[in-house]
Amino acid sequence: MAGSTAASSNGPKDDQNGTVYEPYRNGDISYVGRECQSIPDRLVHAYAFAAVRLDLSFNRLCTIKGIEHFIQLTELVLDNNALSDPSEFRFNSQLKTLSLNKNCFENLDFLISSIEQCYPTLTFLSLLGNPACPDQITNPDKDDDDYQRYRYYVIHKLRQLRFLDSRAITASERRESRRVGAFMKVARPRLYEAPTWAEEPEDATRFTPLPALSSGSQKKTVYGVLKYKYTGKHSEGNRFIRNDQL
């Protein structure tokens, strides 16, 4: 392949233990376990237009900026990284496989909506090991019912999928997802954090709309019952007229 030869001759090479590291071969880029935090520019410049498969697993990726240059990709593997922002996905009508196992995605609705918009022909998706995925591997407090509800929701949203989390989607799952998938959104309650208040100096003046408690030397208001008897010369109307006097 002319494209393969050109990419290989100009690509990045790392000498490690006396060997030459060549990440590109026949349309595949394997840049695994290199401890990179973003997609290296040299990968983009050398291989972006020739690569059909990109594997960046077991790195420290917290961003995939630059992925938009890999316009020929049909398979993208990003397992075991620190990715958390689905808004960095870019449109690719050719991508069929997306593996995001063991990352930091939390909002399932945002994640699936982004995938739906960016990868309309996706057939394989794996999200195991993310907070957004209620699998019992990383979420031991979840059960099989939680995971099945999650599957119904994802299958309902991404109707072209054939495999979810390395498991084939069955005909019964597809039927059930059409019936209940829209109502199976996985809710993750936020943990309540008590507000923290800055400590005030002991002599700080505090505003209060109520009067402060008075000291012992001041007079205090006392509530009680007082018997009232009118002894004046003026009438108080019908207030003191009994029924037998009318």
TrEMBL record:
Residue ranges, compositional bias (Polar residues): 1-11
Pfam family, one: LRR_9
Membrane-spanning residues: none
Chain spans, region Disordered: 1-20
PANTHER family xref list: LEUCINE-RICH MELANOCYTE DIFFERENTIATION-ASSOCIATED PROTEIN
Entry protein name: Putative u2-associated snrnp a' protein
Organism listed in the record: Ixodes ricinus
